[in-house]
């Protein structure tokens, strides 16, 4: 259920404290320099693997590719059963049935982008139909995109009401709300969109579709982590954050884990509350994990191409 917001939505959102742009960038840059020792690095890599939403969102996706990616989601390294499964597999709605059969009984979540991904410029009726179809086909998570045009035009009520409606259509499935922060222009808008989505019932707020540049950045994610932290303090409800797009290396992933710990706290260091949206990150995590164990890189050709 959405939260009750006192007064007008516009007054509420514009009454949020402004973001210190220089301060946010400086703090994110400072945290990105933190180093992790070898013992902790292995734990961080395994945690990052467990947080990955393994993703394929291409027009050329085939049932065979989705089945192969589902197998990789469950068993990232077939030669090493100690490697944990990823959090979820994310695909287009028409591939949900194929993915659901491949993931049945594995414990790996199944996410579907819906609501007119990636632009979000379609009718509410179509968005709700997309969502219902994906959930009926087996999606346990829905990644919806907000109407950025409506948000930037100041039509906050339209964005809020659409999130509420999609959340209701999700039923038991979790709702991740994609803000597409690269199109929101300012950190203040990122903060407003984050709070709007949280009050409308989002289970997660997500940076990007991966189709717009810039996608995820550390400063933007920092602002969103502050939002979920402060929202929980104000309402008692915990929600998650998912940076997505452009996260390709183990070093990138660890920087995000440090950010989570320092900004939101240890409670968010869990796949239930933090995810990494990526299509190429997993292979680098596997290579770095192998090097820690053997002292040698296995090389990118050792792993399947996502």
Automatic annotation (TrEMBL):
GO molecular function: deoxyribose-phosphate aldolase activity
Taxonomic path: Bacteria, Bacillati, Actinomycetota, Actinomycetes, Streptosporangiales
InterPro entries xref list: Aldolase_TIM (IPR013785), DeoC (IPR011343), DeoC/FbaB/LacD_aldolase (IPR002915)
Keywords: Lyase, Schiff base
Protein species of origin: Nonomuraea wenchangensis
GO cellular component: cytoplasm
UniProt KW Lyase keyword: yes
Protein name from the UniProt record: Deoxyribose-phosphate aldolase
Broadest EC class assigned to this enzyme: lyase
Record SUPFAM superfamilies: Aldolase
Alphabetical list of SMART domains matching this protein: DeoC
Catalysed reaction, written as an equation: 2-deoxy-D-ribose 5-phosphate = D-glyceraldehyde 3-phosphate + acetaldehyde
Family annotation (Pfam families): DeoC
E.C. code: 4.1.2.4
PANTHER family linked to this entry: DEOXYRIBOSE-PHOSPHATE ALDOLASE (PTHR10889:SF3)
Any single biological process term in GO: deoxyribonucleotide catabolic process
Family recorded in the similarity comment: Belongs to the DeoC/FbaB aldolase family. DeoC type 2 subfamily.
Pathway field: Carbohydrate degradation; 2-deoxy-D-ribose 1-phosphate degradation; D-glyceraldehyde 3-phosphate and acetaldehyde from 2-deoxy-alpha-D-ribose 1-phosphate: step 2/2
């Amino acid at each position: 259920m959405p939260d009750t917001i006192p007064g007008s939505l516009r007054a509420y959102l514009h009454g949020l404290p402004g973001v210190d742009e220089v301060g946010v960038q400086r703090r994110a840059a400072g945290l990105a320099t933190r180093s992790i020792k070898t013992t902790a690095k292995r734990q961080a890599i395994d945690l990052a693997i467990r947080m990955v939403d393994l993703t394929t969102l291409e027009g050329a996706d085939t049932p065979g590719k989705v089945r192969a990616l589902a197998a990789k989601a469950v068993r990232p390294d077939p030669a090493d059963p100690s490697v944990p499964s990823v959090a979820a597999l994310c695909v287009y709605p028409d591939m949900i049935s194929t993915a659901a059969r491949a993931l049945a009984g594995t414990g790996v979540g199944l996410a579907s982008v819906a609501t007119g991904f990636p632009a979000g410029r379609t009718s509410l009726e179509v968005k709700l139909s997309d969502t219902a179809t994906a959930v009926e086909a087996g999606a346990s998570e829905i990644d919806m995109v907000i109407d950025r045009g409506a948000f930037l035009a100041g039509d906050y009520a339209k964005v809020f009401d659409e999130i509420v409606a999609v959340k209701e259509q999700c039923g038991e499935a979790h709702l991740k709300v994609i803000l597409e922060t690269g199109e929101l222009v300012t950190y203040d808008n990122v903060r407003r969109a984050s709070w709007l989505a949280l009050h409308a019932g989002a289970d997660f707020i997500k940076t990007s579709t991966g189709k717009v540049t810039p996608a995820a950045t550390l400063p933007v994610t920092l602002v969103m982590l502050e939002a979920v932290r402060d929202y929980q303090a104000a309402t008692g409800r915990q929600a998650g954050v998912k940076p997505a797009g452009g996260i390709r290396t183990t070093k990138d992933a660890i920087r995000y884990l440090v950010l989570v710990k320092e900004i939101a706290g240890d409670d968010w260091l869990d796949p239930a509350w933090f995810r990494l949206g990526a299509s190429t990150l997993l292979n680098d995590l596997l290579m770095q994990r192998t090097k820690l164990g053997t002292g040698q890189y296995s090389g990118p050709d050792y792993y399947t191409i996502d």
